[in-house]
Amino acid sequence: MISLLILPLIVEIVYSTLKSFLFNDTPIWSFEVTIFLYGTFFMLGAAYCHMKKAHVAVEALAPYLSVKWRRRFAVFSEAVVLFVVLTLLVVSIPTAWRSTMMLERSTHQTPFNPHVWWYRWIIPISCLLLSYQSIRDMVGIITGRGTDKEREDALEEERSDVK
């Protein structure tokens, strides 16, 4: 669902490029709209990827660790993610609130000059989603429920120990 946010971005870029190339006239709203669409796609996509476990993870150490140490490493990784996300959340909420109170407009000095206060809330919303997912994953790892992949790895290791 989040990946569908890329479609309006593609349409906007193609339209802007064609209009610029064919008519030598770029839409005045093109620059800001591209920023809004890509930023939203990126931030909400990060939260969605974390939920689906589709993010890039470094698996250099995991094969050499026991299940117990893999779980500890996974908790540490989630703690790092949580720290970064909560830091961003603490910084972004006051910024978004100030922006909303003054009905901030774009600082890019374009004739379009859109309101950006609503866009400032994308970061806190995404950080809330990421922190919720990170806490959920951490609790799952600690309680042993973990992810499907972790359960499969644990079962595989138990089978190899039995042999």
Automatic annotation (TrEMBL):
It is a multi-pass membrane protein. InterPro entries: DctQ, TRAP_DctQ. It is found in: Cell inner membrane. Keywords: Cell inner membrane, Cell membrane, Membrane, Transmembrane, Transmembrane helix, Transport. The keyword Oxidoreductase does not apply. Residues 14-142 form the Tripartite ATP-independent periplasmic transporters DctQ component domain. Its main location: membrane. It comes from the Bacteria. The keyword Transmembrane helix applies. GO terms for cellular component: plasma membrane. The chain crosses the membrane at residues 26-49, 73-97, 117-135. Belongs to the TRAP transporter small permease family. This is Tripartite ATP-independent periplasmic transporters DctQ component domain-containing protein. It comes from Cloacibacillus porcorum.
